């Protein structure tokens, strides 16, 4: 039967490895939302559930309210642009690696705040002290250049790699010497801190950075990110939330979910599952002789596959073609999540093996 004659209903359903937010929310979070639904609460983040979530997060941070303020926002883009805008004067700039999420994935949201981005060459998706300092020194022709003030990094990075404690410490030392602030995009902070080779703690982030945020959307929540702001930057932060439309009247919806994620170890258990599923896929690719475009450290797998195999896999699985190359291969990104079905991972690996052996 010609492909054009096949109806959508006759095609096999595709399992999605495109992102880590295709599923709704973990059942415990949904149960908590239902259980508390009829209670009356104060608005705009002053409800008892948001305050409980802040207390629980501070306990995990091993920090006090004299050290950090915690605010909940609905999305990662709002977390980034509000954090950045709150730190910078109009003539100040943010420094980010070329592959940084804010550089190419947020539709110019940072530039829309009126701040220039200064690009720094990355190494395995990470900011290095030497590259940072070199680019910093190249942007000192004042007042004709925007003044570097904030360094943006993400953990895990856009390539799924993570910062070690030594790497983040080295960056922190350079930033303090140069008078720069550090912001950590934590959309995938859970998988970064749960990675097998990770040696960073949440307390280390408090000590080594100025602002970071903890992603809930990609870690079992319906929506929501928790911004952790050091107190020297916290004054007036809530006004930035309000001006950017991120101070929700029903902030309780985020507070309830973060309280459930951090009441025990659920946040990290879900992250560990995502990493385990990615490692199974990554190991299978390597056993079959396929190269990895980046080391698999968290829940993102970047593999170099022939176009024929990519097309066949796309009939049954959703994933992102990261880069098409001129040699007939493509770099694909496979993303696992807190809810990834282990059986579907086994099916994916089985299909890759079958087609590899058939074409071999």
From TrEMBL:
GO terms for biological process: amino acid metabolic process. Its cofactor is pyridoxal 5'-phosphate. Keywords: Pyridoxal phosphate. Residues 40-305 form the Aromatic amino acid beta-eliminating lyase/threonine aldolase domain. The keyword Lyase does not apply. It holds the Pfam family Beta_elim_lyase. The keyword DNA-binding does not apply. One of its GO terms (molecular function) is lyase activity. InterPro entries: ArAA_b-elim_lyase/Thr_aldolase (IPR001597), PyrdxlP-dep_Trfase (IPR015424), PyrdxlP-dep_Trfase_major (IPR015421), PyrdxlP-dep_Trfase_small (IPR015422). PANTHER family: L-THREONINE ALDOLASE-RELATED, LOW SPECIFICITY L-THREONINE ALDOLASE. Belongs to the threonine aldolase family. This is Threonine aldolase, putative.
């Amino acid at each position: 039967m010609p492909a054009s004659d096949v109806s959508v209903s006759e095609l096999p359903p595709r399992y999605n490895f495109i992102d880590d937010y295709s599923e709704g929310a973990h059942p415990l979070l949904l149960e908590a939302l239902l259980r508390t639904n009829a209670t009356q609460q104060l608005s705009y983040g002053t409800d008892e559930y948001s305050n409980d979530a802040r207390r629980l997060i501070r306990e995990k941070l091993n920090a006090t309210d004299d050290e950090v303020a915690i605010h909940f926002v609905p999305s990662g883009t709002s977390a980034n642009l509000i954090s950045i805008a709150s730190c910078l004067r109009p003539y100040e700039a943010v420094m980010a690696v070329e592959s940084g999420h804010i550089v190419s994935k947020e539709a110019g949201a940072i530039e829309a705040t009126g701040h220039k981005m200064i690009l720094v060459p990355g190494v395995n998706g990470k900011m290095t002290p030497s590259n940072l300092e070199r680019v910093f020194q190249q942007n000192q022709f004042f007042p004709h250049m925007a003044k570097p003030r904030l360094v943006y990094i993400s953990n895990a990075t856009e390539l799924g790699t993570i910062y070690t404690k030594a790497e983040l410490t080295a960056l922190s030392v350079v930033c303090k010497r140069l008078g720069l602030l550090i912001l950590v995009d934590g959309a995938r902070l859970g998988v970064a801190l749960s990675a097998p080779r990770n040696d960073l703690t949440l307390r280390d982030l408090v000590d080594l950075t100025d602002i970071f945020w903890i992603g809930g959307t990609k870690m079992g929540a319906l929506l929501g990110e928790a911004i952790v702001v050091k107190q020297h930057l916290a004054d007036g932060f809530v006004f930035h939330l309000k001006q950017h439309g991120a101070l929700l009247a029903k902030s309780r919806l985020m507070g309830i979910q973060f309280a459930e994620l951090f009441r025990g170890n659920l946040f990290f258990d879900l992250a560990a599952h995502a990493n385990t599923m990615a490692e199974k896929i990554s190991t299978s690719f390597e056993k079959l002789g396929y190269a990895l475009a980046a080391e698999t450290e968290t829940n993102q797998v970047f593999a170099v596959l022939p176009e024929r195999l990519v097309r066949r896999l796309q009939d049954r699985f959703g994933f992102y073609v990261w880069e098409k190359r001129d040699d007939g291969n493509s770099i694909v990104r496979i993303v696992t999540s807190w809810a990834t079905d282990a059986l579907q991972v086994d099916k994916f690996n089985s299909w890759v093996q079958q087609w590899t052996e058939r074409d071999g």
